[in-house]
Design goal:
The protein is 37% helix and 15% strand. The chain is α+β, with helices and mostly antiparallel strands. The chain folds into two domains: 100 residues, 2-Layer Sandwich (Phosphorylase Kinase, domain 1), CATH 3.30.200.20; 202 residues, Aminoglycoside 3'-phosphotransferase, Chain: A, domain 2 (Alpha-Beta Complex), CATH 3.90.1200. A hairpin with a 5-residue loop joins strand 4 and strand 5. Helix 11 packs antiparallel against helix 12. The longest helix is centred in the C-terminal third of the chain and has 21 residues.
Length: 329
């Protein structure tokens, strides 16, 4: 492969239909909402899990968004965590409001969370300058009100990626294979990649509550230009800039001048270069892990395409910043 894989983030999931969900969950949702569910749209096709997710129209005129999953899927716990987190976010953070939750007791346990419906579009398909500006402003505003963290009990960001910090060293030592489909020059830069990820304890320390999984499919821009952030189930404590910087390599790959942007944003203007590069190296390492393995239960094959795209673009971003030799030999 001579380029990163293409990933259409609007078509990465395969989700169950509303009619396939247990009648007991339908009934529990009707009770929790206090009104009948008159119509449920086709499930959304973004994301990587097999959890149910679709817009619904209620008898009282409301439009809501329902997500549901059975016990045993990652989404089951993720939806519960989101239902806990979102009500604790500051009002100035644009996140769809949680309306109610529902669950089925007994042997076949399901959990559902219902949020307000946001009629918006996903940015980054590809990135445009206007959308990049909107998302940047939203990230800057969110970071300001999430520092110090308004939520207690969060783990540090480093704990989320701790095991993956060893990946570059294991590849360099021959203990792990380099994932297929990456740039041919990657083996030559592994020593510096190892050095960069070793800075993680210092570089990734912070007291800001970070979304920690900010991707284009976790963002919505409505008709007014307001940027909304969804899927708040991976919150950690870290530097104020991690969510925004995590969007930069793919935006750069799609033509946005993110190298100038980091010198201008208050999030990164004064951050040591090696700290930013350490974070990007850590995410590249994270995406290398299991890139060649089958997706975990409940996830779609597009997850691995996403990992390879991110590993590729994050390494490309570092190559420019670190002046790595990338000419094929």
């Amino acid at each position: 492969m001579s380029r990163a894989p293409d990933v259409d983030y609007t078509a990465t999931s395969v989700r169950p239909d509303w009619t396939s969900l247990p009648p007991a969950l339908h009934n529990a949702l009707t009770v929790a909402l206090g009104t009948d569910i008159e119509h449920v749209a086709a499930p959304v096709t973004s994301g990587f899990t097999g959890g149910f997710a679709a817009r619904a129209e209620l008898a009282d005129g409301r439009r809501v968004f329902i997500k549901a999953a059975p016990e045993g899927l990652h989404a089951y716990e993720a939806y519960q965590r989101e239902a806990e987190v979102v009500p604790q976010l500051p009002p100035s953070v644009h996140a769809p409001r949680i309306i109610t939750t529902a669950h089925t007791p007994g042997g076949s346990r399901w959990f559902a969370v219902v949020s307000e419906w946001v009629d918006g579009r996903m940015p980054g398909g590809p990135w445009t300058g206007a959308d990049f500006g909107r998302v940047t402003a939203a990230c800057e505003r969110t970071a300001e009100v999430m520092r110090p963290s308004p939520l207690g009990g969060l783990d540090p960001f480093g704990s989320l990626v701790g095991d993956e910090l060893r990946i570059p060293a294991e590849i360099l030592a021959g203990e792990r294979a380099l994932p297929a489909g990456l740039q041919v020059w990657v083996p030559r830069v592994l020593p510096e990649l190892v050095e960069l990820v070793e800075l993680a304890p210092e570089a990734l320390a912070g007291d800001t509550a970070a979304h920690s999984d900010l991707r284009p499919d976790n963002l919505l821009i409505d008709d007014t230009g307001t940027c909304w952030t969804i899927d708040w189930n991976w919150l950690t404590l870290g530097p104020a800039w991690v969510d925004w910087v995590g969007l930069l390599p793919v935006a750069q790959y799609q033509g946005i001048d993110t190298f100038t942007a980091i010198t201008r944003s208050p999030l990164t203007a004064d951050v040591p270069k090696d700290h930013l590069d350490c974070f990007v190296a850590v995410i590249a390492a994270y995406m290398m892990k299991n890139a060649d393995a089958p997706p975990p239960p409940g996830c779609t094959p597009a997850l691995r395409d996403h990992q390879r795209l991110y590993a590729w673009t994050f390494l490309d971003w570092l190559a420019v910043r670190r002046k790595w030799p990338t000419v094929e030999v």
